[in-house]
Amino acid sequence: MTDDDADTGGDGTGDGAGDPAPTVDPEETIDLLRELVRIPSPYFEEAEISEFVHEWLDARGHDPEYHHVSEPDITEYEGDNVLARLSGSDPEAPTLLLNAHMDTVKLVEAWEEDPCSGRVEDGKLYGQGACDMKGGLAAVMTAFDALSEVELAGDVLLTAVVDEEGPYGLGTDRLIRDGYTDDCDAAVVTEPGPILAQSEMENPALLLGARGRVFYDIEVRGKAAHGSQPEKGVNAVVDAGRLAAALNDMETGDHPKLGSGSVCPLKIEGGSQTLSVPERTRLMVDRHVVVGETKETARADAERVVDELGLESEVDIGFREAPDPGIVYGPYVTDEDHPLVTSLSEATRSVCGVDPAYGYFSSVGDFNYLGDRADLPTVILGPDGENIHGAGEFVYTDEVVEVADIVSEAAVRFCGRN
């Protein structure tokens, strides 16, 4: 290798002087997306799509492996992530993680056509999960395949994961627990971005962080009495309602990038006996948090609200049961000057001819596990669409191809060429 061919990589300039970046085949990318959408894959039911992704990668010589995911205690779930790695030549060069989930929400009944049709019309591909996030999955799969034609300095690790849409994100959680993220230096997650951004924006866009989430599971204990004499009891349902209203109006933290936190009471359960004052109620409350807010501060905030209300009922502030205390959707922000961000920005200009918009995600996903728990600089970059999680979901096909090309070029810039 001559000095003219050398490239250090890892600094956002890793595509090599004059070397063309790898590009994907648009028709092959959309054909792959159609095949993915035609496989029903609600969370906890991903066996068929896991096998398909494994076979697709194997047929192209990428030596994929199944990574088993087991959660026997709460969900009794058994499934398989699919992993593949492109090994670079320089052990000192950075490793890039490409993450996408294979599952969807449960199939929505309101579809007026087959929810897994993969129909293409007017530049839109329709189907449950087409946008969230089989479009992003197809993009990283074809980008990964294109990158195999390049002699990279650093590694690229592809992780197609299960159960992102479920309650615990078990697929990416297991990646972290089993050490697959330990040698990674940064991550790209190809979730749809602009549709769930904190502010109105359009692709091309890079989302550089996300709010986190805690899930209050609150027990309210009153005192039973005959329903004809409610003054002799303490009505846990009434007190739970007062508490839900107070939590809904609770002040939350603010962050210059992530915006404000939010609180949303979801459910009150309790009180089923005829003519009895309800003595026990369960209140479930969703809370999105920003950097600086933790489970501990969230608990303290809720306890302060309880104290201020002066309820007659006893209240225990807890959190939703999880398979492990480490399963937490923490907030995170990636620095705009990080080499991954500059690599993605330069690739966006190259592919799209414009600068990307910068934004921040309003909710949570596997990117929180990577950006917070795994402590990886993490960027969300994905094709947009409409009606995610609902009937009529679609993804813009041109954006699927653009994302694939941006990811492949940015990976070369970030990891470097040999």
UniProtKB/TrEMBL annotation:
Keywords: Hydrolase, Metal-binding, Zinc
Keyword Plastid: no
Domain of life where this protein originates: Archaea
GO MF term (any one): metal ion binding
Region Disordered: start-end pairs: 1-27
Annotated family: Belongs to the peptidase M20A family.
Stated name of the protein: Peptidase M20
